[in-house]
Amino acid sequence: MPRAVVLLSGGLDSTTTLAMAKSQGFEVYALTVDYGQRHRVELERAAAVTRAFGVADHRTVRLDLRAIGGSALTADVAVPKDRTDEAIGHGVPVTYVPARNTILLGVALGYAETVGAFDLFIGANVLDYSGYPDCRPEFLEAFEHLANLATKAGVEGTGRFRVHAPLLKLTKAEIIREGLRLGVDYAQTLSCYDPDPEGRACGRCDSCLLRKKGFAEAGVPDPGAMSGEL
Questions:
Q1: All domains of the chain, ordered by start, with CATH?
Q2: How confident is the model at residue 65 (pLDDT cuts 50, 70, 90)?
Q3: Which pLDDT does position 185 carry in this prediction?
Q4: Which of 36, 145, 158, 218 could disulfide-pair with 173, CB 3.0 to 4.6 Å?
Q5: How far apart are CA 158 and CA 148, in angstroms?
Q6: Residue 65: left (phi > 0), alpha (psi -120 to 50), or beta?
Q7: What is the pLDDT of residue 230?
């Protein structure tokens, strides 16, 4: 069984990505990064997801990006609330964490080298998160090229690294339908950028609104809405 490293935040997208990697026959090694995000409850959600799916290993790496700030998720900057679909779909939002996916994929690449994996999975999506420059296919293709230049395995030719973004061109509703087909329990996931101290979703940030819209368009109830873990 080939091994794959899956970046897992505990959110809807990354959990669905993990389920898809499992369904494709990969032995999953999940990687969660504690980068100082304000929505730290997602770390607990990630652990719950890995227990439910029975992954081969789950590592949590601490890498505090609050040291550089620059984002509403890592600095004392307000998280936008109640934005329209049009506003969410245009421009780079303040919730963008500078170079986050580059950093996370770099850590995932190092982990992959240590466990003998050549497949990296990330829940990037360009339709719902069009404002994030590091969710574009051009970026993912460039990182895959870098991975095969910057590693021992790539230089020695013992394997070729591949970056998988299976959600890249799916709508949120399509992602949800696929996850349900694969048995994902979305009550375990958290999508909120600004949860309260008890870990309950705000229901008003971009991520909460996109999740609500996705479940509505998929025509199914969100189990997370009943537990406050949108």
A1: 3-223 (3.40.50.620)
A2: very high
A3: 97
A4: 218
A5: 10
A6: alpha
A7: 54
